[in-house]
Amino acid sequence: MNRLLRSRTLLVALCCPAAALPLAAAHAQTFPTKGLTIVVPFPPGGGPDIAARVIAEKLAARLGQGAVVENRPGAGALIGAGAVAKAAPDGHTLLLTPNTMVISPHVLAPGAGGGVDVHKDLAPVIAPATTPLVLVANPQLGAANLKAALDIARAQPGLPYGSPGNGSPMHFAGEMFKRSSGINLLHVPYKGVGPSITAAIGGEVRLLFTGLGGAVPHIRSGKLVALAVTEKARSALLPEVPTATEQGVANVEVNAWYGVLAPAGTPAPVVARLNQEFNAVLQMPDVRARLAGAGLDLLGGAPQVLADFMKADHQRYGQLARELGIKAD
User: Fold this and answer.
1) Domain 132-254 falls in which CATH fold?
2) pTM for this structure?
3) Is 23 exposed, middle or buried, given 0-12, 13-18 or 19+ CB atoms closer than 10 A?
4) Tens-place pLDDT, residues 77-93
């Protein structure tokens, strides 16, 4: 009898979408029923990983369930995105990614990351933060400012610069910088912010475009020299570092935003609950302090904010990829 009743309930829901709404609402009321997994599509140590771990700790406390961070790097964030897209659409598996996810499909070969379509296969939840990008140098380069670095680069055509990967905002910043300054640099992609910073500190590359979040501790310790911020205005975290535009290299205004997404088909009430909880975490004073100290500017807001970011960057970087001839190295 119970099986018959469940079958009839399912049949009604399938035949009448309106009848499914109470079921979705009930799902949201009982959510979560188990721990959450937040997939970060880059190795540990970078801005997305820092943000995910700070937020996961507070999210777990609010929801009364565990929340773990799982690093799934590869294919310009598409490996992690694909893994989340294939997960059960119940809100328990989420992706926290930088905007690399919507840029890399313009750069990588078709089908990279298993062929995930980030616009169709994932549902926006929230854009928790943005971070300025910064050009840093290894002290061995011998450049205390951008002008000195440009002089060195002109004297050494093909000087390597690093980025956290093909199709990353930092990769585009580097190529835009090359176009605007007229210098010849060689792009060296790494598998994430952490590995790229390690390479720059070790002298494997002496110039690096990276997110401010992962670089700040090393700038303050003197292991890296901040040369320019690729934003319209200086960062409050490093107010003494001029923008590239201030130093004569215009049209290099690039930043990275972070997005949280669920598998497509996740019930709208569950997405709304997740959005509410993430927004609440982002308002916590200690969270704001920790993330601001890591170089992140906090956002939040409705899922549509993230959807608009994704659409705008998809269009912008598609055009830039064509203009600059950017493709996988």
Assistant:
1) D-Maltodextrin-Binding Protein; domain 2 (3.40.190)
2) 0.85
3) middle
4) 999 999 999 999 999 99
